[in-house]
Amino acid sequence: MDTWLYVSLIALTAGFVKGVSGFGSSLVSIPLLALVFGVDYIKEIVVVMVTFNLILNSMLLVAHKGFRIDSLRNVWLIPLFGILFTIVGIEIFIAVSDTTIKTIAGIMILVSMGIKILQYSPYSITLPETNLFKIIVGSLSGIGNGIASIDGPPVVFYLSSIHAEKVYFKNVLAAHFLVMGIAAVFYHISIGSYTMDIVSILLVMIVGTAIGAFVGIKISKNWQQHIFDYVVIVILFALGMYFLLW
Which residue ranges run through the membrane (predicted)? Predict the structure, then answer.
């Protein structure tokens, strides 16, 4: 009983983080779920999060009436190469050990923390909006999505570096995550990744997610974003180090 209570609370937290910031559900959930089920269950947790994120993104799109799929019009190379390299990432995910997945996830979480810190650094990085950078960003996002359901950091970094306006930033992220989630779920279905354990975890998480996302969206309208980001940076550091050192 305690296990499912913890899973529900993790889902609530993931939904809240996603509702406030537009990303970060996997960064928070994967290490916390590993604490509940053990790091030897990491591959099942990744499949859970791939599917969970698709459900969560769909919920947010319904709630976010201003969402526009054509936000991807100018960055279509990012989701295109994201889809292609999601398949590559999943094949790597199948081939490597749980320990390797755990280490990669830990590194990705710490990289995400670094990107968050850069957003508040006086030494901002500006990248040109070229097709080459979009291809690189999409490819890295796809590999992260396939290996550990962590596809946000490269896209967040790119959008921050081109100083994307807030609404455009969130729209691109939402559309990209939706496309990537669909690609990953269909590929996992095709290779038979789903088990009854995975389905059970997902069913428990859905209710908590809906509540957390709703609260996060409401609060984000009046939330001091920098305070939330500082809290997230500390959490990401702790979770990332846990994955690397445990």
Answer: 6-33, 45-63, 75-96, 103-123, 135-159, 171-189, 195-215, 227-245
pLDDT for position 68: 63
Cβ–Cβ < 8 Å for 24, 231:
no
**Cβ contact 181:53 at 8 Å:** yes
d(CA 10, CA 13): 5
Rounded distance between C-alpha atoms, residue 93 and residue 82, angstroms = 16
Distances (CA, A) of 151 to 52, 89, 196, 222: 14, 11, 25, 27
CA dist list (Å): 93 to 50, 102, 137: 12, 11, 19
Averaged pLDDT in 10-residue chunks for the chain of 246 residues: 82 80 76 85 90 80 63 82 94 91 86 75 74 92 91 84 76 82 92 89 81 74 65 71 71
d(CA 80, CA 107): 24
